[in-house]
Amino acid sequence: MSPRSARLARLSRSVTFSACHRLHSKALSDEENLKLFGKCNNPNGHGHNYKGEKLICILRIDPVSGMVMNLTDLKEFMQEAILEPLDHKNLDKDVPYFAEVVSTTENLAVFIWESLLKLLPSGTLHKVEVQETEQNVVVYKGEETMVK
């Protein structure tokens, strides 16, 4: 098959995990944290059933296997990068990354991105999407910068 006729596809896989956290910034006073984060600043924390989805960027469909990536491999990568460190954990206490980083969904998406980058073939990760609730979804695509 010539490169011109090679077929490209995106591959997506979702996982669901449960975790608790407390939105609290060490850079703010207790009063400022309560004002900024409201009930999510509860000293005892609160929990979510997160849905994590990640997409692999456009990849060539292998003409022999018919796949862009073996789904068993992708499942194992997601197990190691997402489920093992995050599922049924207190993000602030059990995940070292969040010792100094506020455990917002935005930062959770960055954590997942960085964890997957270590495991996936170079250049394959396109985006990470984390759904905290049906109304709140964060999409992270790596180090994008805003143009001022």
**How much is the average pLDDT?**
91
Gross morphology: elongated
Major sheet: arrangement of strands: 3-1-2-4-5
Q: How much is the radius of gyration in Å?
A: 18 Å
Cofactor: Zn(2+)
GO biological process, one term: tetrahydrobiopterin biosynthetic process
Protein name: 6-pyruvoyl tetrahydrobiopterin synthase
Family: Belongs to the PTPS family.
Walk me through this protein's architecture.
The protein has one domain (8-140): 6-pyruvoyl tetrahydropterin synthase/QueD (Tetrahydropterin Synthase, Chain A), CATH 3.30.479.10. It is elongated and about 60 Å long. The protein is α+β, with helices and mostly antiparallel strands and 148 residues long. The termini are far apart. The chain is built from four helices and five strands; from the N terminus they run E-H-E-H-E-H-H-E-E.
In short:
This is 6-pyruvoyl tetrahydrobiopterin synthase. The chain is of the alpha+beta class and 148 residues long. Helix content is 28%, strand content 28%.
List the helices and strands and how they pair.
Elements: E1 8-21, H1 30-37, E2 46-60, H2 71-86, E3 89-90, H3 91-94, H4 105-117, E4 125-131, E5 137-140
Parallel strand pairs: 1-3
Antiparallel strand pairs: 1-2, 2-4, 4-5
List keywords for this structure.
148 residues; elongated; alpha+beta; five-stranded mixed β-sheet
